[in-house]
Hints:
alpha+beta
Amino acid sequence: MRKLPQYSFNEGFYIWFDVDSKEEYYSTPVYMYKTDFNDDLENHKRRIVQEKDFYKKKPSKKDSAPKHPATILYPFAEQFGRFLISLLNADFSSFNTAYDTFFYLYGFELLKEYTPDKELMNTYSNEEELVKIMKMVYDNSYGYLTDIQYNFRRCVDFIYNLNGNEELKDCKPTSKLTASLVTHYDDVYTYSSNIEIILDTYSDKYLKYGNQTIEKLARELDKNDSFIKMTNVYTSEKLSNIAFVILEQFVKNSNLPIKKCQYCDRYFIPSVRQDELYCDLPNEDGKLCREKGAKQTYKQNLEKIPALLEYRKAYQKKFMEVARSDNNKKLKKDFDSWKKTAQGKIRDYKQGKVTEDELYKWMMENK
C-alpha cells in the first residue's frame, strides 16, 4: 500500500477532509505561474491566490518557471467541496480561461496521461516554454475535461434538483447518489475506480507532533480527545476520480446543498443557511454575487412595490435639495428626521406591522 510522502515532493495529488471545520485539504506541486500562496503557519495550512503577473515572488533564476514542491504538513485549504464547485464552474473553452478558472489552483498532476512524452519538468527556462507545454496538456485533455464536467453537472443537478429537475425531490441526496451509481444513471459511476485510500496511522503523526513532550501532548488530548485527528487521504492520477471522491464525501457528510446562484448562475455551496440565493464567488469587477444580488433584489423590490419606489424618489429629491442648500442646517435636520421616520415605516412594513397600502399612503402624504 502506498505511503504518504514524508517530506516535500514534486509529483502526485493528495486530498483529505475535515467535516467539522467544513474544509478540505490537498497537497500537490504547483507552478509559480500567476500563482502565489498565503501561508497560515500556525494552523499548518496555506491558500492559493491568483496573480495577474507571471510572478509575484522573485524566481530563483531570471525568467525561470519553477515548480513549487508540495508537502503534506502544509496543505492548501479550501471550503469543503470547493474543488468540485471549481470543476463545475470552470470555463474549459480555451487554455487561458481553463487555467484562470481551474488549473492555477490544482495544477496538472491529475492529467498525467495527457502530458507529452516526457514528464512535466520541475523548472522551465522561461514563461513561453512553460506555457507551450501547459497548452499541449490542455489540448490533449480537452475532450476528457468537457466530458467529466458535463457528467458531474448532470449528476449534481439530479441530486440537488437544479435546473428545474424535480425527479425524486423528496429523496435524500445520499439515496439519489447511490441509486444513480448503481443504475448507471450517468457516467459518473465509471469514476469510482482507480482511487487509492491511504489509511491514517499514529506513526504518521510524528512529523507534526513528535517535537512535543509526551506530557504536553497527553494534557492536550485529555482536554480534547480529537486533538490529533485521524484522517484518511485519497490519491489518484485522474481528475475524474478525485472529483468523484469529493462528491461522495460531500453528499454523505454535509447538511448543506449545492445550489446555483440566482445572480450569476454558477454552482455554489451556501456558507451557513440552505436558503441562500447568491454565491460568494467574485465577478470580473471583484465584487461578490452576494453583494450584487442584494442590490439587484432591492432594485427589483422597488419596481414591484410602489411605496418603496415613492420612498426612493422622495429620498433622492430631498437629498439633492440638501446638497444644493449651501449647508442649510435646518434643511439637513428636516431631511435626517424624515429619513429616520420613513425607514422606520419601511421596517414596520417588512415586519408586518403596517400594510403596503398604509405605507404607500404615508409616503405620498410625507413626500
